[in-house]
Design a protein that fits this description.
8 helices; mainly alpha; 144 residues
Length: 144
């Protein structure tokens, strides 16, 4: 009876497992994903965030990338869909840990979710990535 609720590992279909099994996109798929991303960007600029999400989602199915996850997170943020935005910022950072825009969005999502300690860690990480001269400028008080 205890095993009735168990699911065989082969039947679990998580996003991470799908990404591991996926073959690299063809050049044609890359071009289609780029076209969808550009259309998503246009829709985002026009403040049609739900349509932008749809285009980014289709592009992600065609040729997944950190940029697409980050862009879709931005659209989710504008819709106030914080859980989805958090999932996408995490996916973007898994694919590209040096993606500064995804890291910034990740911090903003954490703030919106009132996860202040996590947001502070992200802010410290962002600050540590700044060149020394920019970090020093941030410490100066504005002249009166």
């Amino acid at each position: 009876v205890a095993n009735e609720n168990r699911v065989a590992p082969s039947s679990i279909s998580g996003e991470g497992r799908l990404l591991q099994q996926r073959k690299p996109p063809t050049e044609e798929e890359e071009l289609e994903a780029l076209r969808l991303k550009k259309r998503g960007n246009d829709l985002y600029e026009a403040q049609d965030y739900e349509a932008a999400v749809e285009h980014y989602s289709t592009a992600l199915k065609t040729a997944p990338s950190a940029v697409l996850h980050s862009n879709r997170a931005a659209a989710y943020m504008m819709l106030g869909w914080w859980d989805q935005a958090l999932r996408d910022t995490r996916a973007a950072l898994r694919k590209d840990p040096d993606n500064g825009r995804a890291l910034e969005r990740h911090g903003k999502v954490l703030l919106a979710q009132d996860k202040l300690e996590d947001a502070l860690r992200v802010a410290a990480d962002m600050e540590a990535r700044l060149p020394a001269e920019k970090r020093d400028q941030g410490q100066q008080l504005p002249a009166n």
